[in-house]
Amino acid sequence: MSYAYSTTDALCDVSLSVGPGELLVVAGPNGSGKSTLIEVLAGVRRPRTGRVVRRGDVALVVQRPDVSPMLPVTVRDVVTMGMWRGRFAGRTTRADRVGVTEALERVGIRRLAERPLATLSGGQRQRAFLAQGLVRRPDVLLLDEPTAGIDESGVLGVHELLREETRRGAAVVCISHDPHAVAGAHRVLRLHEGRVAHRPVRESQPRSTPSSSAIGS
């Protein structure tokens, strides 16, 4: 698939597939097309050529800008929004509320559940949006630098969460420069100027075939 901003090519003939239980890390320098790739895979942007095939529920976790102090939402509200895909906003069940609490617990911010989102540090906000992506237990989890702003000890915890997601069968695609993420990946796709520069395959790659891919292009 390919994608362009006006006349500027952002992705050129990129092809990939990720199967259930697999963690693919996307690496590369700034401006190489990583964030654009994640947005195209998520359906936020439509490819200029080619197509994206998604199987199952897809959740996207992006790097978040500063949050306006005027935004009247709590951390719990933000995570609850992750439950609303395909449903009327605002309607939650008891199971939803239990799931939100579990997601907050998993990312280590349950104690902050009732705090206004705008009062959190950058790392805490990132954890909140990570919990939002995890709360539905999606089949495909797409993440753009999920550890941005999180301290070193917390970074290791995030990587363990991603491994937990693959163990339950999710396909995970993660943009990261962190060496721990790269070391723990089943495969690493490196981009340079919108093209696949290097795609090594580790021996620990789960057995999968193109027909079993959860997401691919």
TrEMBL record:
PROSITE patterns: ABC_TRANSPORTER_1 (PS00211), ABC_TRANSPORTER_2 (PS50893). SMART domains: AAA. Residues 1-215 form the ABC transporter domain. Keywords: ATP-binding, Nucleotide-binding, Transport. Residues 195-205 have a biased composition (Basic and acidic residues). InterPro entries: AAA+_ATPase, ABC_transporter-like_ATP-bd, ABC_transporter-like_CS, AztA-like, Metal_Ion_Import_ABC, P-loop_NTPase. One of its GO terms (molecular function) is ATP hydrolysis activity. The keyword Cell membrane does not apply. Residues 195-217 are annotated as: Disordered. Residues 206-217 have a biased composition (Polar residues). Belongs to the ABC transporter superfamily. NCBIfam families: AztA. This is Metal ABC transporter ATP-binding protein. It comes from Leucobacter triazinivorans.
